[in-house]
Specification:
The structure holds two protein chains of two kinds. By secondary structure, chain A is mostly helical. Chain A is built from 14 helices and no strands. Chain A is globular. By secondary structure, chain B is mostly helical. Chain B is 70% helix and 0% strand. Chain B is built from nine helices and no strands. In chain B, α1 packs antiparallel against α2 and α2 packs antiparallel against α3. Chain B is extended. The chains are: A mainly alpha, B mainly alpha.
Chain lengths: 349, 200
Amino acid sequence: MESIIEPVAALFGPAWPLVWSLLKIIGIIAPLFLCVAYLTLAERKVIGYMQVRIGPNRVGPRGLLQPIADGVKLLLKEVIVPSGANKGLFILGPVLALGPALAAWAVVPFSEGWVIGNVDAGLLFLLAVTSIEVYGVIIAAWASNSKYAFLGGMRAAAQMVSYEIAMGFALVCVLMISSSLNLSEIVAGQGRGQWAEWGFGFLSWNWLPLFPMFIVYLISGIAETNRAPFDVVEGESEIVAGHMVEYSGMAFALFFLGEYANMILISALTSILFLGGWLSPVGFLPDSFLWLVAKTSFILFLFLWFRATFPRFRYDHIMRLGWKVFIPLTLFWVVVVAVWVMSPFSIWK
Amino acid sequence: MDFQTVVFYFFSTVLVLSALRVITARNPVHAALFLVLTFFTAGGIWMLLRAEFLAIALVMVYVGAVMVLFLFVVMMLDINLDRIREGFWSYLPVGAVIGLLMVVEMAIVLGGKYFGLEGMPAPADPGEGYSNTKELGRLLYTEYVYPFELASIVLLVAMIAAIALTLRKRNNVKVVDPAAQVAVKRDDRVRIVSMRAEKD
């Protein structure tokens, strides 16, 4: 590896760090987009089978080329800007919806040392980036100059701000027991302990001692990405498609990409923070990047499963769940975990 | 000029220009969005100073929460620009005096001998492994724990006061208790009666 990189590095001279970072970014973004494309197919297939249908099976063998066909179709369609719209912001909206979803991957570790930015404040960076995701939706909603879009935007703003708080408190519990904000160290911390020494690694991961927080994080993650059953932001039956109603072609596709990239991000984060990241569940198998892929895929499957199972929440019920159930629960658990960590019964010493 | 200086001037230019646009933009929503950009670039400059906790907290609190709610309100207002511009000339003298006062105050603070560049030398490079978050946390919870707790109590009081001032109890709302809804049994709602078939 070194012998290949060095002559190339010499070729670029002082610009090499920039080129190298760019290459690493492409190395993450390109597979991510491929995953997004096939996640859309997986979603249609999984929900299809759950509803005793076959799902898309016309394009390519077993429908495997369907996402490519969808992508080409969206690329070739015209992007229509409504005459009453605020043009600059109308274009900016979808860009801001996708941007943060990609930026967050900068600090996500895929395996020991496989990370673009191994920064100490990784968890804080993630919180900040996920908190600016809502701007894409709000800006698009306002710029469209449409009542449906605007209602969707208002719902999105309220919903995302509410669930972010519960998510933040769940993360506070995680960082208290790992006493680090670095994601790689949070994963490494989950591999230590009595159970891991006995070869039952999966019992020493954070999901067990922090079980309520794991559930809260997962559900808030679904609400944060505006997925069913918390998809009142789109709410086809009431406000058509919410903030996306005026968008067509590639501008619409950007929202779509952002939503799915966010789903993958939340799943990967849940795996890293609560399910031990790339750590192997049992002692006799090696730790590997593939474990992270397996855990992330499982959480993604849960996302699809929930969509096929639950009816949409009513809007006031979403707000009640966020503010009156999750936030008091997480606040209480922050105190419980804080006392637990400092007490003689602490298992994280 | 090294890389950091280039980044600093880039951020500063964006910061000053977007701050100017906040007060000159005609559309209040645009002004609010430029304020978001201002906060974001200010966070970038703090990041350059290796104050990553403050930078990220600025983005998280102001950009991620405060400005979202701010935009929420601004977008719903029906603002008539002409009405706002009407009083411009009559308010100008008052505004100019206040503006001048602020410039003078800032000049005194920044030009005084206690706040000049000589009075505040650049901090020594803390070296590798320095964590701004950890240092801030340590200081806040040891040396400055009483002022910190006092500030949080002031904030809590302000929060409760804001809620108490705006809370209105309305008697005619038809709200259902979700817990009661979930706990409902079939027997509460449906009564099955056996009756003889009616035939004629």
